[in-house]
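Hi support team,

I'm opening this ticket because the web form for multi-chain structure prediction keeps timing out on my end. I have pasted the exact lines I submitted so you can reproduce it. The total is 759 residues across two entries, so I didn't expect it to be a heavy job. Is there a limit I'm missing, or should I split the entries? Thanks in advance, R.K.
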Amino acid sequence: MQEIILIRYSEIFLKGKNFGFFEKKLYDNIVDSLQGVDCNVVRMNKRFYVENFDNKFRRKIIDRLKCVFGICSMSPAVMLDTDLKTINDYVASIKLNGTFRVTVNRADKRFPVTSPDYSRALGGIVLSHNQGLTVDLHNPDTNLCVDIRENGLTFVYHEVIAGRGGMPVGTSGSGLLLLSGGIDSPVAGYMMSRRGMPINAIHFHSYPYTSEAAKEKVIDLARIIKKYTGPFKLHIVSFTKIQEELHKKCASDYMITLMRRIMYRIAERLAKNIGCQSILTGENLGQVASQTVESMTVTNAVVEDLPIFRPLISFDKEDITSIAKDIGTYDTSILPYEDCCTVFLPKYPVIKPKMEKCIKEESKLDLEELIAGALDSIEIIDI
Amino acid sequence: MFFDNASTTKIDSRIIENISELNEVFFYNPGGLYSKGRKVKELINDCRHKIMDKLNASDGNIVFTGSATEANNLALRGTIKKNMKALVSVGEHPSVYNTAIELRQQGYKVEFLCLDSDGKVDLEDFRFKMTDEVDFVSIMHVSNETGAINDIAELVSIARDINPNVIFHCDGVQAVGKIKVDIDELDVDMYTMSAHKIYGMKGVGALYVRDIKKLKTIMFGGGQEFGLRSGTENLIGIKSLSDAVDFAVSELDDNFKNACNCKLKFLEVLQSSDLDYVLNSRNGNSPYIVSVSFPGCRAETLLNMLDDEEVYVGNGSACSSKNSGNRVLENMGLNKSVIEGNLRISFSKDTSVEDVEKMTILLCDVVKKYRENVKK
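Hello R.K., no limit was hit. The queue was backed up. Here is the completed structure from your submission:
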């Protein structure tokens, strides 16, 4: 008899011939997530389990696994040899309160008793060893599950802990996340990672107009989402000179639009330099002036070769906030340190910018020099 | 160059020497029944008496705490009861103001006093709100934002004329060792002080209490400090506070004169530049603190630019569009642009007029550069 943590995976079940690639990646990610914890991860048919750990680390293991994309659910369980007496004896030792039911899954058809019959038999055993317990087949306090597998092993558990679902990170193409200090962009990074995308990040910093504390806040946010995305590099770009030039030379109502066009250009160049295959943003339709269809059209236009993914485009703010709270970024995001998008903010930013006007305003600048300067200024932080 | 001395000061080397010697020999727990423990207790009591003597408090006692914040919390939360009414100035340090807000949210009767345009408690407002139903008043001696000095003796006198039993607490953190503080003359019931504002250690403060029996503890444990502040007493911290008060009060006049000269030099250089600025500190204020605003500038940016020049000043406002505003300056009636561009320059006894001149020139340069960069 051994205590284990059973791990079930989700969508990768649906994969056909390349199922092995996804499963291996998930296995590797699970092993990576459990670095520093003394345990083994074992692969068996269509699921994994963690074994050989000190029980005092059980909660820690589960907390780590909750951050691994690709896991549908997990259960602390007891693993037994498939043997009638062994299973019966173990079930007899379980102490329960309130109401219960027994659910038997007999994947191993060699097992001599059918699932319904064995459920009833085990139910009887539980009742005879627990005073005051009653059966509730519809809404029990405890659903005692007995999973008889084909490999001669049986798993007994009653707790099913939800995983984060999604796909294992590293099974999809990569993305460069435009990470600000706000609520949305860390959530966008999380959402794309959840589809298997490994990410890197870029942040635009305007010291002295923004503080070192604002930069530290972004680094803290990056460290929080790393729990889910895995390690990545945060590229911090000095945007001060660009903002000052835009402010001096260009129409103030186009300030934000032009800033974002330049940011996207820099992001695309960096993404290509470091091998990222897409650009990710936390844009959300209608939230602010730079996030109208017209604004996104003119900012999209400067990105020539890479797709731009906006996983939050149709979310309500409430939904984004809810995810931010769930993943642990919200409290840091709301700290009052401004990022560069609010410095030099015009009183009335344009909400439906015109492409011709953007091009005309940009002609007043030496864009190449500004972008080259910004790329040269990049500070890389390993997250 | 450090010009944020209202936030903290460098420890006086004499104090370091004194506490080092003490720590080598008297590390014992003053609660110990053995002779060494009793000796430590005696030394702590010596510090108590020294402070009382220097601040001319002829009765009452000193309760040592871990900070002025703790002392202020003790003063308010240890006194105000549900059936009491309290008046608190809106210009108080967050350790008083936020405690008062919390008490109000818990259902205690707390009302706030307005400030006048000089940053002092508005006397008319005080006369209006101070009724015989008010049992507790808390007004700071010197504003940590602007250096404005409240006439505590007069305010106490007005309060006691209306309710002789009113308990009057005064946060004296920016006053002790900087202006004359005579507890008997002020006639306050409680007075807060802090070591690290006057060249002592961080992590130690004190509350003068006229009548210990009227105060209840907010911290439970071994019952030290008359049952009001449990926790093993910090002899070297306490000694640093006692020495800090001793030196600062003894050297008050010379240091005050130096601070006045520093303030004058600052204003002289500022005036001789052609910069647009607003001075929020008045002539009669504590010369140790100068609040000045540069309208149209963001204080945080100026701070960062000065930081690059290794000049460190205080920020009088919370400079973020998400959290803009400064309670004290807002209540003085200042507008948003003035508040956003507010800096706090504060001097120590060791600040030289030459350094003030250098700093002010740099500040003017930085403001000019900022305004150039943001000009359309």
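A quick check on our side: Chain A has a mean pLDDT of 93. Let us know if the file doesn't open in your viewer.
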